[in-house]
């Protein structure tokens, strides 16, 4: 017998002494049983048993001490006693195990000093002794004697003394756990560089870093640090590079952060910092900055013109995913060395500054998802080195500058979801459809055949310009009618009667709070397909709802809000008052149909199953529309006015689908509970919708009884059983892409999909929190969703090593 794997059973009683007779035994695993008693000392009696390589007794009921004879097992490489009731000291003899690589003795009753001899094995990769009562200090040379150390768990003990500075020599260290000890980071004043990247460090950054007067490089990125930046960071006069990227830090940035005049690299991205006017109040003193990344935070205010004018050394400037406002100052042209400039996903407005063309070294320019207006400056073509340009999701108008054809290094151009018009160039970057995105601009024509756009009209003669305008107006007139409610001609009752075949049941799409919706075809308007919402005026508040909805739709401008085509206020054939609203018709129906196709239509809708990326895009579309209504709508709109607003999902599918913001169809919104309409109520409804999209379960499924609802259902499975509650279609998609999900240790490998799903579920839970004040703001929802999408698509490219 050489290998004995008996783990994960229900064996009980004591470990038989007879195991000592298995002189050829090399692996013994008795983990995860209910064995008790002491570890047999005679396991090491047989000389041939020295060949034992792994001994696992994890999660049993073992008592007593670890026998000193364990040191006789000279071939032992792994020893796991975690989660038992062992007591006493770790045997000194364990230092004799020269091949020893993994020690697991966490969560026992062990005490005493951790023997220094244990740290003599250069092969050690894992030391896990957390949750005991060890005291004393860690060896000061731990990083020198254990160069291969990857995991160090010593939390939950009574260790004290100085933090062993030599730990920084363990270049492979992935997890460092020191909580609930008294270890102080009394690092040498001679320390010049400190990297603690990706070590799962948590808690606040301790005071005392200001004592490291010779420190010029400090990297604490990719941890779980929280709280604020200590004020004594301002004492680091020699600091050249500081990276706090991807933590959970918050609060305002200390004004002394830029006291170090040598600071050239500052990365505060992917945190929760806040505050306005950060450029004037904090960053102005960072005179030598070359790299600045404050993206993915909660900063507000404007970009200071004076900051831009005095920081011409900047080469990389990342401001995306904040809440900056105002226009882009012309002083941006002073950044003559700028290579990367990203202001996407903010609230900037105004024209795109023509001075950007002065940034002749510019390679990457990202300005998407703002409120920029006006035309695209043709002189941007002066940036000969530009490689990626994204101006999508703004309010830009006018033509595509033909000068862009000459940009020989341009490999990515996204102008989608604006209002640009005219002929598309067909050379340069425009000759490759995979390198450009122009969707959501309904006035474009021409271009290469792969774009599948209508040809531009060819007009001859001196009146060509005038005729072209007339023809273009005839093309875009229906789109204009969608937003100019107050200028539309009223459509008669009889025309709607014909369009809907007498409001027949065959054309009934659905019923809502104040009426019914019918599919119709307007013969006098080019057989346009419409959805006619006929109000039930017998219902209290219906007439008021009609006026409010007209007012709201007249004032709303957003690509994801379904536009109104017209309205009708007339008398029906019986002489009764008649009111109806006419919307765009969403050929693909509503989102509920896509999420829950009935059995009778399952075959017809099998092609409609949504993959993870489509659901993620839908989540972003809906969140963006709600964010607009909550914070960015220029007109003041009350909640009774948007009570029945519809959201259309444009980018996610080839043809449109829609949902209702209030989500009343499932009777789980707070409005259905009798609470007043509010932004927080919208967030609740959105959260429930997001959970339904990912789990595939309606909030009113039969399994939800008593205290168990969709929110609690997801929350109870979030940490360990996510694959069990997710829509199987999403996981099957993941398996098709060779994502492997292992349930034994809940290890998830190659799991971009499951990571994305878990992140979406967390947002859904946060949005549907019981207390309104605990819910997220839609600005934060949109920001996090874009981040999840970037990570899912592996868009974000990690920056070069700070030391480079």
UniProtKB/TrEMBL annotation:
InterPro entries: Kinase-like_dom_sf, Leu-rich_rpt, LRR_dom_sf, Plant_receptor-like_S/T_kinase, Prot_kinase_dom, Protein_kinase_ATP_BS, Ser-Thr/Tyr_kinase_cat_dom. It is a single-pass membrane protein. Pfam families: LRR_1, LRR_8, PK_Tyr_Ser-Thr. Coiled coil: none annotated. Keywords: ATP-binding, Glycoprotein, Leucine-rich repeat, Membrane, Nucleotide-binding, Repeat, Signal, Transmembrane, Transmembrane helix. ATP binds at residue 533. GO terms for biological process: post-embryonic development. It is found in: Membrane. One of its GO terms (cellular component) is membrane. This is DH200=94 genomic scaffold, scaffold_720. It comes from Coffea canephora (Robusta coffee). The lineage of its organism: Eukaryota, Viridiplantae, Streptophyta, Embryophyta, Tracheophyta.
């Amino acid at each position: 017998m050489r290998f004995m794997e008996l783990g994960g059973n229900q064996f009980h009683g004591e470990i038989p002494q007879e195991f000592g007779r298995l002189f050829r035994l090399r692996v013994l695993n008795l983990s995860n049983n209910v064995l008790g008693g002491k570890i047999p000392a005679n396991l090491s009696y047989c000389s041939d048993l020295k060949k034992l390589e792994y001994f696992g007794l994890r999660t049993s009921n073992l008592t007593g001490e670890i026998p000193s004879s364990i040191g006789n097992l000279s071939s032992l490489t792994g020893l796991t006693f975690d989660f038992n009731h062992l007591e006493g000291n770790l045997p000194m003899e364990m230092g004799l195990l020269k091949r020893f690589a993994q020690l697991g003795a966490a969560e026992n009753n062990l005490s005493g000093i951790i023997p220094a001899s244990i740290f003599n094995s250069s092969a050690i990769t894992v030391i896990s002794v957390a949750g005991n009562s060890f005291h004393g200090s860690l060896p000061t040379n731990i990083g020198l004697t254990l160069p291969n150390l990857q995991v160090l768990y010593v939390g939950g003990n009574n260790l004290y003394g100085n933090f062993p500075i030599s730990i920084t020599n363990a270049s492979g260290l992935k997890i460092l756990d020191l909580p609930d000890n008294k270890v102080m980071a009394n690092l040498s004043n001679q320390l010049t560089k400190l990297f603690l990247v990706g070590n799962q460090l948590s808690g606040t950054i301790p005071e005392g870093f200001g004592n490291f007067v010779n420190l010029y490089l400090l990297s604490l990125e990719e941890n779980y640090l929280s709280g604020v930046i200590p004020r004594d960071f301002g004492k680091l006069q020699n600091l050249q590079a500081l990276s706090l990227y991807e933590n959970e830090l918050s609060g305002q940035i200390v004004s002394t952060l830029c006291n170090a005049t040598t600071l050239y690299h500052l990365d505060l991205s992917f945190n929760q910092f806040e505050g306005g006017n950060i450029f004037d109040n904090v960053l102005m003193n960072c005179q030598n900055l070359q790299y600045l990344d404050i993206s993915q935070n909660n900063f507000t205010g404007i970009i200071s013109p004076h900051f831009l004018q005095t920081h011409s050394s900047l080469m990389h400037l990342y401001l995306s995913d904040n809440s900056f406002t105002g226009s882009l100052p012309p002083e941006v042209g002073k950044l003559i060395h700028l290579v990367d400039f990203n202001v996407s996903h903010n609230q900037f407005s105004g024209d795109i500054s023509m001075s950007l063309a002065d940034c002749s070294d510019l390679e990457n320019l990202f300005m998407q998802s703002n409120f920029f207006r006006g035309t695209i400056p043709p002189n941007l073509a002066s940036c000969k080195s530009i490689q990626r340009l994204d101006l999508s999701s703004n309010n830009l108008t006018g033509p595509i500058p033909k000068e862009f054809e000459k940009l020989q290094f341009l490999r990515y151009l996204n102008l989608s979801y604006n209002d640009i018009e005219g002929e598309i160039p067909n050379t340069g970057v425009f000759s490759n459809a995979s390198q450009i995105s122009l969707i959501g601009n309904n006035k474009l024509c021409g271009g290469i055949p792969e774009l599948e756009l209508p040809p531009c009209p060819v007009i001859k003669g001196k009146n060509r310009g005038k005729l072209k305008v007339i023809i273009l107006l005839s093309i875009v007139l229906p789109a204009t009618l969608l937003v100019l409610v107050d200028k539309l001609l009223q459509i008669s009752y009889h025309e709607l009667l014909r369009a809907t075949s007498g409001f027949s049941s065959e054309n009934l799409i659905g019923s809502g709070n104040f009426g019914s919706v019918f599919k119709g075809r307007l013969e006098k308007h080019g057989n346009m397909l419409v959805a006619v919402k006929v109000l039930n005026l017998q219902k209290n508040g219906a007439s008021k709802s009609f006026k409010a909805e007209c007012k709201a739709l007249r004032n709303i401008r957003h690509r994801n809000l379904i536009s109104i085509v017209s309205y009708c206020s007339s008398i029906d054939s019986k002489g009764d008052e008649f009111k109806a609203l006419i919307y765009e018709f969403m050929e693909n129906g509503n989102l509920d149909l896509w999420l829950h196709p009935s059995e009778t239509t399952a075959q017809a809708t099998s092609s409609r199953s949504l993959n993870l990326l489509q659901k993620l895009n839908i989540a972003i579309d809906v969140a963006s529309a709600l964010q607009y209504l909550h914070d960015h709508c220029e007109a003041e709109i009350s909640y009774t006015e948007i009570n029945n607003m519809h959201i259309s999902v444009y980018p996610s599918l080839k043809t449109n689908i829609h949902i209702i913001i209030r989500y009343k169809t499932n009777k789980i919104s707070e409005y259905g509970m009798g609470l007043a309409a509010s932004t927080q109520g919208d967030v609740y409804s959105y959260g429930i919708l997001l959970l339904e999209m990912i789990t595939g379960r309606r909030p009113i499924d039969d399994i939800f009884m008593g205290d168990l609802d969709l929110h609690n259902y997801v929350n109870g499975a979030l940490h360990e059983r996510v694959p069990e509650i997710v829509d199987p279609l999403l996981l099957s998609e993941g398996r098709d892409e060779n994502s492997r999900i292992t349930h034994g240790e809940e290890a998830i490998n190659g799991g971009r999909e499951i990571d994305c799903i878990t992140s979406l579920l967390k947002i859904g839970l946060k949005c549907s929190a019981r207390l309104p004040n605990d819910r997220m703001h839609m600005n934060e929802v949109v920001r996090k969703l874009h981040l999840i999408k970037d990570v899912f698509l592996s868009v974000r490219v990690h920056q070069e090593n700070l030391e480079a």
